[in-house]
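Lay summary. Proteins are chains of building blocks that fold into shapes, and those shapes determine what they do. In this project we predict the shape from the chain. Here is one chain we studied, written as its sequence of building blocks.
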Amino acid sequence: MTAITTIRIDHAALPEHFDLSRPDAVAEVIEAALREDGIAAEASDVISHIKIELPTTQLAAASTMLASLQLI
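And here is the predicted shape, written in a compact code that computers can read:
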């Protein structure tokens, strides 16, 4: 069994270079970027925030990628 980490990013905290009118598309972009880096992540739009779920063992790599996207 793998431990799962959930990261939540409030819509209000998303950088302006993302299309804030389409949070579902933002989630898709984030998920694709993480997967391109080999991170088995799932991102989705959940009403007030973007929810990202990933194996806890990949949290450090995901944090680096999310920082490069100016999300954290």
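What the prediction tells us: Helices lie at 23-36, 59-68.
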